[in-house]
Amino acid sequence: MKKIIAISLLTLIGFNASANDNAKRLIELLIKDDISVFRSGGKSNISNKIPLVTASQLISEYSNNQYKYEKAYDKQLVNIKTVVSGVKTDLSGDPYIVANGKNQFEYVSLELKNKDDAMNINKGNKIDMICVGTKNNVMFPTLKNCVTTDSYFNQFAKTTIEDINKLEVNDKPSNKFEAIYLGLWKFDTQKPNVLDKYKTVNELLKNKADFDEITKFIKEGFTKENQEISMPKP
Hints:
Helix content is 42%, strand content 17%. By secondary structure, it is of the alpha/beta class. Strands 1-2-6-7-5-4-3 form a 7-stranded mixed beta sheet. Helix 2 (21-39) packs antiparallel against helix 5 (149-165). The longest helix has 19 residues, at 21-39. The relative contact order is 0.15.
């Protein structure tokens, strides 16, 4: 799976040849690594923004305290991995996915952003999706604007790199990835060619002297608002 994700990201992400190559190369690797860690269930920057949930978990939270559930999940991103119990249509004829909890009488409904995606989803399929919670639930939880996790992160990586491509070295970063990129760029400007030797982010992390100096540049660009990453809605 990681190999497939890496190939997809590398296909999508292209850099301006005149831009800062080392900083962009390393921030690309960092974004790719963060996505891969998240997808494998590890602790990452993204996991702080998109909780992994199950159908049974959402049903339990909803039945225990609907008000608390809706406060927690309304307009919030979730990553749900589940098995399709069925594909049905609502009164408007739009399809939605049903994922049962512990029995057939309790379920989560997943409304797809692209309705035609339902053509390729069948009962018994395992699905991995990014969705948005809502307070507009009926008997059981409803998730809206669901897209496959692959498509979500391909678009996220593409958009994030496009925004980084537009930055100048003295610009103010709007999120954590941009702050790290600008810190790498400033370091590379003051110490040309030092970053050439680092083929992975882990290699850089192991060199305490270089990493600590880069961290100083990164912190210069931090504000309370941009120390986080912002994850777009599908």
